[in-house]
Each structure stands twice: as C-alpha cells, then as structure tokens.
Design a protein that fits this description.
CATH superfamily of the largest domain: Transferase(Phosphotransferase) domain 1
CATH class of the largest domain: Mainly Alpha
CATH architecture of the largest domain: Orthogonal Bundle
Number of helices: 10
Radius of gyration: 20 Å
Helix content: 40-55%
Distance between the termini: 39 Å
Order of helices and strands: EHHEEEHHEEEHHEEEEHHHH
Largest sheet: 6 strands, antiparallel
Shape: globular
Length: 274
C-alpha cells in the first residue's frame, strides 16, 4: 500500500471537489457509533442516502506495542478493509461497496486514513434473524440455503486469500428486499477492518475464522446435522471424507470455542466491574 492514496467515487467525488479529503471527511456529521482517540465511526447521509464512515488518526507506538505484546496484530488504519473489500468483490463474495478511501503517511503509528461505504439497507444481521427462529422458525429449505450460502462465502473467502479475524455470524447481513427465500437470498459480509489479505490463507488463520463462526452459533437453534451440512458445503466434499480428513480441525473447533467462551466471560466480568 502506498504512503499516499485517495479514491473518491460519487457522491464524494463531486461533494469534495477541490477540497482536501482528509479535512472534508472530518467535517462529516451524523450518528456516531464509536469515538476513540485514534478512531471514529459514524453514519452520515448525503442526498438522502446512508453511508458509514470510519476515520483512523493513528494509534501511536504505545498501542502498537501493547497489541504486539499480547500477540495481536494491530489495526493501523482503513487499508485492511479497503483491500479486503476489493478482494472479496473479485472473489464473488458480497460485501460492502466502498465509495471513498484515503491513506496518508508512512509512519504506521501516525498514519491517517478513512473509508466510506454505502449503507446496506434494508438488512438484518444473520445473528438477529436466526435468534428469531425460536418464535418464527424458517422453512427447512430456507435454513439449509442459508447454511450453504454462509459456507460457500467462507470457502471462497479463504480460498481467495482472505481471513476475517472477526468471523462471527453477526457480521453477515441478510438483505430483506426482496424478501429472502430458499431460491432467492443475498448475504453481505461486513466489518472487515481486521481482515488479512494474502495469496493463500494459512490454515491456522482459516481455522481461527471457522472456530469463531462456530462459537458465535453455539446458542442458536442449529442442530448437529446443520453443522455437518455446513462443513460438507464448506469443504465441497462428502461428509464422510470431511470427518476423516478434517478430524484435527473438528477437535480444534471445540477447544477454540471453549477458549473464546472463557475470553468472552472474562471481558463480560471486567465490564461489569467497571
């Protein structure tokens, strides 16, 4: 990624003509979803259409060191999301559409960047949609179609060199227009700010994504048969072969899910104490 790069599509190409986009993006107003020292996320409207704006102002060397000490890769800016969106588009995986992107500066601790994506509406997170099945269960055909759609999106993503790093079911949005049916549904994958893009996804990172997805559906009305159907679709192999060839993965899914549950419990406890 270059030290300086700007991409503007409409309406921001016309709206910001002759202006410094890094100044213009800071002036955007709307509903703020997150406000941290080095990052701001908000929803804005232009000509009656919604857009999500993520502004990164540099996280500083202290935060970078903190992440590395915790064996976490720090998110330095909007470049991850920009690159992942482009790659997913090339892979045929529905995601967001970026209409503006900017990157400025070589110093990773002070690098400034932003990305603006079109709002996906009307949609519902797949997590919320599935939780509603207790009161309003879907048809068996629709349930199976959704399982296969998620599996195929995950398969294309991983085979195409992208791993998400926050691969939870809540980060799939189900489009509601037209109303989803087994023969006509659309899912879009969002929240790609931690994604990594390579030529080949390492197995370690593939398995981390799958474990996160598995963890995120533990409390949902999915049966063991549903999970096996997902695995068969993800690997595009008969189930018997998947169970044989991927036995280490299946064992890891269970242990990794337990680790994530423990981590979630610690975060919840810490939140309750603050």
């Amino acid at each position: 990624m270059d030290a300086g790069q700007v991409f503007l599509d409409e309406p921001f190409r016309s709206l910001w003509a002759g202006r410094d986009p890094f100044v213009a993006v800071e002036a955007l107003a709307g509903e703020v979803y997150r406000e941290l020292e080095g990052r701001r996320t908000l929803r804005t409207e232009v000509a009656g259409r919604g857009y999500f704006v993520k502004i990164h102002r540099g996280i500083g060397w202290a935060e970078i060191a903190k992440n590395l000490a915790s064996l976490r890769l720090p998110v330095l800016g909007a470049a991850n999301e920009w690159l992942a969106i482009q790659r997913l588009r090339d892979l045929g995986v529905d995601s967001m559409r970026a209409v503006a992107f900017g990157l400025r500066g070589r110093n990773p601790a002070r690098q400034r960047s932003f990305i603006i994506t079109e709002e996906l509406a009307p949609t519902i997170s797949l997590e919320d949609y599935c939780l509603g099945w207790a009161e309003h269960p879907p048809s068996l055909r629709l349930k199976r179609a959704l399982l296969v759609a998620v599996a195929q999106a995950a398969r294309r993503m991983h085979l195409g060199g992208v791993n998400h790093r926050d691969f939870y079911i809540c980060h799939f949005l189900l489009h509601l227009q037209p109303p989803p049916t087994a023969d006509r549904l659309r899912l879009s994958l969002i929240d790609l700010h931690r994604a990594q893009v390579r030529d080949i996804t390492p197995r370690r990172w593939r398995d981390k994504d799958l474990a996160a997805l598995y963890f995120s559906v533990l409390d949902m009305p999915f049966t063991r048969h549903d999970r096996l159907r997902f695995l068969s679709a993800y690997f595009a192999q008969p189930l018997r072969r998947v169970l044989h060839d991927e036995a280490p993965l299946l064992a890891r899914l269970a242990s990794e899910a337990q680790r994530l549950q423990a981590r979630f419990a610690r975060k919840s406890a810490a939140g309750e104490m603050t």
